[in-house]
Amino acid sequence: MQNDSFVREEMLINKSKECKALKDDLDSLSRTLNRCYQETKVVLDCKLRKGIKGKRVEGHLFCCGIKCYYLIKDSKTWSECNQTCQDCSSSLLKIDDDNELKFLRLQIKSGNYWIGLSYNEKNKKWQWINDHPSKLDLMTIKSLLTQKGCAVFSFTGIKRDDCAKKNSCICEKRMDEFPDSVCSRKEK
Known about the structure:
alpha+beta
């Protein structure tokens, strides 16, 4: 009888610890969401290569934490999206961890967007642009078990696609690198 009481007390202590950890996670997510800006339609002036005059790129911008995300609805190949992001002084999206993945899945309502993840034939592995470090476990994403292609992102998550196929783009940039006029915009 005394043994049962001890076991129940230990279980209660463990459940209390789990509950506290979940509460801490919820508080963290609440703080993150409070630092987020809703989607706003913007037009960025982007430079083009080889001295060609700049081009205006229309899309939707939303920010959370230190990152801003720029959704470009134009259909482009993975390479074209990569170049468009670079022309706009940003890069294709690199997802840092599971929390960012969960947040982005809530933001994307429809469509597929190229992200900065592709299969590197030379290294025989999936890797982010510029070999960007990420805490996201790519091995848990079943569609990336195929050893070729580029990655697209949608509300269902990350999946593999043919790099020559046309999809929309999602670029990212640190909030402090955007001009004040873009960053200070909030949709009311």
